[in-house]
Specification:
Elements lengths: L2 H23 L5 H11 L6 E8 L2 E8 L2 E3 L2 E5 L3 E4 L5 E2 L6 E8 L2 E8 L4 E9 L5 E6 L6 E7 L11 E6 L4 E6 L1
Antiparallel strand pairs: 1-2, 2-3, 2-4, 3-6, 4-5, 7-8, 8-11, 9-10, 9-12, 12-13
Length: 180
């Protein structure tokens, strides 16, 4: 076998092994491909990406599909690859002024959702701490009527039950308020 034929054979073998390695380990070259692969596995989507941003070793997406919204994270793996974890979509309850969901991932607590009332200009999340104090986090950024609020914290038992969300209009009046 000539040197050129051996080189071509070895390059093809490396490409096939890399493809198998990536497929078996759920690795992708782009976070968007990992997101859409995750949705295919869940028989959900493909969703429209409304906003994305990097935080730590993850990329987060605000996305929507039909009457559902989601906030999946795609994690960086092995330096150049991306891997998805769990994901889901929550139905937008359009009869409510604000439809939202919450979750935690690696001590990253998140509240995300959609505003159905265009008069809402600010969302505030209030959470009790173990010391009896209250943490208040505000967001006045909306991406095509979607929002998120993130913070680092411990997902302790009892954290979510005393929490609530408040939506304000431009005058500062409460438009919507509910407990989690």
């Amino acid at each position: 076998m000539t040197r050129l034929k051996k080189l071509i054979r070895n390059l093809l073998l490396i490409a096939v092994l890399l493809f198998l390695f990536m497929r078996l380990n759920g690795l992708y070259f782009s976070p968007e491909r990992a997101l859409h692969a995750s949705e295919r596995d869940l028989n959900y989507g493909p969703s429209e990406i409304v906003h994305s941003f990097d935080y730590g070793k993850s990329r987060f997406f605000l996305a929507r599909y039909e009457n559902y919204f989601s906030f999946p994270s795609i994690d960086r793996a092995l330096g150049v690859f991306w891997r998805y974890g769990g994901g889901w979509g929550k139905e937008n309850e359009q009869e409510r002024p604000l439809s939202f969901n919450f979750h935690s991932h690696d001590n990253q607590l998140t509240v995300f959702g959609m505003r159905n009332d265009p008069s809402i200009t600010r969302v505030k999340v209030e959470l009790p701490t173990a010391e009896g104090e209250t943490i208040a986090i505000n967001s006045d950024e909306f991406y095509e009527d979607m929002f998120f609020v993130m913070w680092k914290g411990e997902d302790e038992d009892g954290l979510w039950p005393g929490s609530h969300i408040i939506a304000y209009n431009v005058e500062g009046d409460v438009v919507y308020e509910t407990d989690f």
